[in-house]
Specification:
heterodimer, A: about 80 residues, alpha+beta, Ubiquitin-like (UB roll), five-stranded mixed sheet, about 30% strand, globular, B: about 140 residues, Aldehyde Oxidoreductase, domain 3, four-stranded mixed sheet, 2 helices
């Protein structure tokens, strides 16, 4: 399956792109993040992230589908 | 109404008042030159805009359900900000002051902890870093 991945803040800087399309066998956002961590050395532990799928917050264990847009959300710091 | 903008916040006009409003509280957050003992020279805010606006609107709706208020408005600036620039404005109109203060504080706290906006601090010593990365999600 092919998914679109968006990166922000420290993840975007480490990956050096703000989005990419990727072929993956990972079934869930959590598995996908671990795959990306291994591939690119992403700096943040899974436990501190939230995730959005197709523009809405989602559980890390949600089953991904071909064409999904997955966004990993580092700890926020607005205000 | 929840807004994200790259423009200065000083010149923005909040939505107009209503006749049953007895008090308005506005919180204004500014860029400070010191954070945890380090001298800050400028800030960069980054946003996931589509989700930030959705989550911000949800927070304003929650404030309206939780407190008896007439109107709530929040705008957050993004991009590069200098010391003294306005980063966020939260304005609540209510019949009475107590709920206006309470709702305003609720909105500021929720926006800081939930809306996908990130802050990178640049320090006078040349170093820089994203804020909040060491804190695991509760």
């Amino acid at each position: 399956m092919r998914v679109q991945i968006r990166y922000f803040a420290s993840l975007r800087e480490k990956r050096a792109v703000s989005e990419e399309s990727r072929e993956t066998k990972s079934a869930t956002p959590e598995e996908l993040y671990r795959e990306l961590q291994e591939a690119f050395g992403l700096p943040l532990p899974w436990a501190c992230l939230r995730v959005a799928v197709n523009g809405e917050f989602a559980e890390g264990g949600r089953l991904l589908q071909d064409g999904d847009e997955v966004t990993f959300i580092p700890p926020v710091a607005g205000g | 109404m929840f807004q994200i903008t790259a423009e200065p916040l000083e010149s923005l006009s909040p939505p107009g008042g209503q006749s049953h409003v007895g008090g308005i509280v506005e919180f204004i957050g500014l860029v400070r030159d010191l954070n945890e003992g380090r001298e800050v020279s400028l800030l960069e805010y980054e946003v996931y805009e589509a989700l930030a606006v959705k989550e911000g609107e949800r927070i304003l709706t929650e404030a309206g359900a939780k407190f008896p208020i007439e109107a709530a408005w929040c705008v957050h600036r993004v991009g590069r900000l200098e010391i003294g620039d306005l980063a966020i404005r939260v304005r609540v109109a209510a019949g009475h002051r107590a709920e206006a203060f309470d709702a305003c504080r609720f909105i500021v706290d929720e926006v800081k902890s939930r809306v996908p906006i990130w802050k990178k601090e640049h320090y006078r010593d040349g170093d820089s870093g994203w804020i909040g990365v060491e804190e695991p999600r509760a």
